[in-house]
Write a structure and sequence with these properties.
This protein is of the alpha/beta class. The chain has one domain: Vaccinia Virus protein VP39 (Rossmann fold). The protein has a seven-stranded mixed β-sheet, sandwiched between helices. Strand 2, helix 5 and strand 3 form a beta-alpha-beta unit. Helix 3 packs across helix 4 and helix 6 runs parallel beside helix 7. It is globular. It binds S-adenosyl-L-homocysteine (SAH) and magnesium ion (MG).
Length: 214
């Protein structure tokens, strides 16, 4: 929670879905402690995809397929490639994707994104980064050349429960200090990149929307 709790709860309540299959995945995630996007992020991500209408999407961090399914629902003509390092999650994602009948258009790859990305030959209209927070800079450096001009990069959890905005986590000894520092560096890297325009959005754990101008 980053913004006022009452406001966040209000927005979250207004963002609930009545899709039974989606709710089942949400319940599974809750029970098994899998950090899928929250309802307000789901709506926001879906909105970006609706507006952008990307032909090709790359996702780093499939988990159990929820956000891939959301993006596919938002844009029926999109093809998605999504990478997941954890085999149990990968298998669960495949099952969930089949339940929606999206298996032809959502291609799940099991492996470490750091290695898998280098093997991808496509260019993408939209990239969603939502995996290990300490590695966002690596993911960015490996994917930015695969993001088309006029493409959109969405980065999730960039404020790390708001800690990224607080000096104390960057200057003192703290267990989470490495992730916080790295996310802070990641934000600076994107903000200062002349090819890109970025906007930080304080919903849930913080998102960054980045547009590639050139
Ligand atoms: N995008 C999903 C949630 C992803 S949670 C959704 O909102 O529905 C983050 C996922 O990233 C976890 O499942 C984790 O196993 C995966 N992950 C972490 N490091 C990774 C890496 N190096 N390569 C691929 N996946 C990774
Ligand atoms: Mg996330």
């Amino acid at each position: 929670m980053i913004v006022n709790k009452v406001v966040e709860e209000y927005i979250r309540k207004k963002s609930q879905t009545d899709n039974k299959l989606l709710r089942e995945i949400e319940e599974f995630a809750l029970k098994n402690n899998i950090p899928i996007i929250e309802p307000e992020v789901r709506n926001f991500l879906g909105m970006i995809v609706k507006i952008k209408k990307p032909c090709k999407i790359l996702e780093i961090g499939t988990a159990i397929g929820y956000s891939s399914i959301i993006m596919k629902m938002a844009s029926k003509d999109s093809k998605i490639t999504t990478i997941e390092i954890n085999e149990d999650s990968f298998l669960e994602a495949k099952l969930n994707i089949e339940k929606f009948g999206f298996e032809k258009d959502i291609h799940c790859i099991l492996g470490d994104a750091n290695e898998v990305i280098e093997l991808l030959e496509d260019e993408y209209d939209l990239i969603f980064i939502d995996a290990a927070k300490g590695q966002y800079i690596n993911f960015f450096e490996k994917t930015i050349d695969k993001l088309k001009v006029n493409g959109v990069l969405v980065s999730d959890n960039i404020l790390f429960r708001g800690m990224v905005a607080e000096e104390k986590y960057k200057t003192t000894r703290h267990r989470k200090i490495t992730i916080v520092k790295r996310l802070d560096e990641y934000i600076d890297l994107l903000i200062n990149d002349k090819r890109l325009s970025s906007s930080i959005v304080p919903i849930d754990d913080g998102m960054m929307i980045t547009y590639r101008n050139e």
